[in-house]
Write a structure and sequence with these properties.
By secondary structure, this protein is an all-alpha fold. The protein has helices at about 15-25, 25-30, 35-40, 45-55, 55-70, 80-85, 95-110, 115-125, 130-145, 150-155, 160-170, 175-190, 195-200. It has one domain (about 15-200).
Length: about 210
Amino acid sequence: MKNLGGGGAHNAGGLGDLLGQLGGRGASGSAAGGLGDILGQLTGGGGASAAGAAGGLGGLGGLLGSLAGARGGDAAGGFENLINQDNPATEPDEEEVARLMLRAMTQAARADGDIDAEEKAKLLDALQDGDPSDMEVVQKILAEPVSAQALAADTPRGLETQVYTMSLNAISPDNQAEGQYLHALAQGLSMKPDTVNQIHDSLGMPRLYN
């Protein structure tokens, strides 16, 4: 049975926290370094995590493992093995992977409400010193309708767990809309409920299924 609710006040995280983290790019001294650098800032990891995000699937697995520890979950054990177990035989382009993960985060963050004009302006302002092509990519991502099904359809085989984990990391799923979005994404990615719950456990999040 799905646990799509979750009560209580909205925890720290979600869109506001995501935007706040990205807004700190300038202060962190992280110059324009491609979408992988933006992804590292979005996940709050700074330069090291940015390098990991843009350092291939192995680096991405390490980044996601560190996110599990930062969330208070179990970063050890089999989490990185879970993330990396079905990596595609041919590694995708690093920028394409970073774009996909950015899309996963922003789609999840918008699951319970679109980004308003002020939030969008703040996001783009945070990118003003970045590469124009990166800003264009982010603008396109923000303009896309929220669709777990479309994101799942565009996810290469072998990146399902990474996309789901990055989506979950962008939010604190404690309302119906976010739970329904994650359920639709998990179904679109053909993920088993046990695998989904394992990811939630690793990130210290309430389980989606019970």
